[in-house]
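Re: nicotinamide-adenine-dinucleotide structure - here you go.
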Amino acid sequence: MKIGVVGCAGRMGQQLIREITQKQGVTLSGAVERAESPALGKDAGILAGIDALGVEISADREALFKNSDAVIDFTSPENTLHCAAFAAKYNTIHVIGTTGMTEEHKQQLAVYAKETRIIWSANMSIGVNILQGLVEKAAAILDDSYDIEIVEMHHRHKVDAPSGTALMLGEAAARGRGVDFKDHAVLSREGITGAREQGSIGFATLRGGDVIGDHSVIFAAEGERIEITHKSSSRTIYTKGAVRAATWAKDKPAGLYSMKDVLGL
Ligand code: NAD
């Protein structure tokens, strides 16, 4: 299976190149970066810190989608939407890990997914997807005398907040509790906020150092507190999941899928 990488010079992009070259049955079909990127013209393997692969980094997104069975994309929402149009045009599998996508972006993805297979998940790791299931279950059992708070920490370079995974966990909690997420989410707090509103789902964002991704969901009541935590210590948990999603989608019909589908959860 021929897999291409868009955003190949990024933290996730470089790890994807290493992952694809290590895995049997898949080959790297191309590597793409922004038109202004200093990585253009370099060998994708050298950039990722491994041997040369004979794959020159280009800025041609359309050619990448045309020449690949699947393209993996951990970039920015604007770029991801552009890429999804090429995925639809060439019926290429599009695996998307990009976070910070708005509701409109997701609706647009659903339109492109009528033509091809798109797998989008704010977190591609098995552990976080299991955490999501546990959170939904706990929220279904516990009533709103248990305050739900979600705390996340990521490296200092992360550009969106709260993290896509934190939002995904909040949505799981809302689903479990049977309430609308948007009506109950408190994404940040500052100043004289007043007392906590019962039933709200609060978020706190920490940024610093090289933290790959830590998430805790806290259910706090009078007299007890349940905390469910996931900590990433390697980016391979996401890239392994993304490559698995690409191979999983090979014989699937067009549609918008998530990691839950890929993992059969
Ligand atoms: P990064 O900034 O290191 O890398 C992003 C790369 O995309 C950069 O190299 C950038 O030049 C490239 N890019 C942007 N626009 C482009 C365009 N138009 N054409 C080609 N390349 C383009 O960021 P990162 O840490 O690798 O994270 C990337 C995204 O993946 C973020 O949204 C992050 O939150 C998300 N992420 C998701 C998961 C998951 O499991 N779903 C895990 C980790 C990170």
